[in-house]
Amino acid sequence: MNTTIFDFIGDHTGEWKVTSMIALKGEPIEPVSRIKKISSSLVPSNKGIWTLKGIVSNLRYTEKEDKDNLVAIQEDLGRSEATLAAFIPIRKSEAWWNLAQDERRKIMENKSQHTQTGMKYLPAIARKLFHSRDIGEPFDFLTWFEYAPTDAAAFEELLEALRKTEEWSYVDREIDIRLVRI
Ligand code: HEM
Fold it and tell me: CA 45, CA 86: separation in Å to the nearest integer?
């Protein structure tokens, strides 16, 4: 099984039932009632109503101390109590991609405190980041989060904090899809 490349298939079958789907910025995507995540390959695949492909990649901006802290406290996906999920495909603007690596890191970590803010919500929120930009996909990132109903309010608080940051001013497409495991 390929553990690097995944297809997120929007359709009417799959173990995650869509409870809401909101285009916060940019073009919406076609509504679906279920999402399925499967191990895949780079071969173009048109399954379901839409298919979004993402790759598990190396860290770009995280320094050793943060990495060690993350590894020590973060939880894996698939916990039985984590019955809620959010699938949030994100694209950043050309202005973001025209910045140098060190400028992007400064915006994410020094000015927007992405990791520092996020860390407060671990281990309650389990997360996984998939990269899509380099394989010609419509989004740059596919983000996936799983949490228990008791942590749903905390997740909203985290999103509110991140969406106010300078980093988010570079987000030009964001679809917020919420799910419940059935
Ligand atoms: C990237 C942590 C929540 C969206 C990252 C990175 C870290 C991180 C460490 C950098 C990875 C690297 O070095 O390449 C966290 C933690 C969270 C959290 C601990 C707590 C749950 C979120 C949320 C969203 C999000 C709620 C979106 C709704 C992203 C995106 C990137 C990213 C799009 C890639 C940014 C880029 O490379 O330009 N996150 N995050 N994160 N995160 Fe989060």
Answer: 23
State in Å: Cα 114 to ligand 1 middle.
7
Residue carrying the six token digits 């140098």: 100
| Tens digits of residue pLDDT in 80-126 | 999 999 999 999 999 999 999 999 999 999 999 999 999 999 999 99
Mean pLDDT on 128-143 = 97
pLDDT of 46 reads 76
Q: Which CATH number fits domain 5-181: 3.30.70.3420, 1.10.510.10, 2.60.40.150, 3.90.550.10?
A: 3.30.70.3420
- For 42, the token pair is 């780079």
Tokens standing for 52? 């979004």
Q: Can you give the pLDDT at residue 1?
A: 64
Tokens of 128: 């996984």
* CA-closest residue to ligand 1 atom 21: 118
ipTM exceeds 0.90, yes or no: yes
From the CA of 181, how far away is ligand 1's center (Å)?
Answer: 23
Give residue ranges with CB within 6 A of ligand 1. Answer: 59-62, 88, 90, 92, 114-115, 118-119, 121-122, 125, 127, 129, 141, 143, 158-159, 162
Q: Are 147 and 126 in contact (CB under 8 A)?
A: yes
Q: Residue type for 103, please?
A: E
Ligand 1, residues 67, 121, 143: which to mutate, most atoms within 8 A of Cβ?
Answer: 143
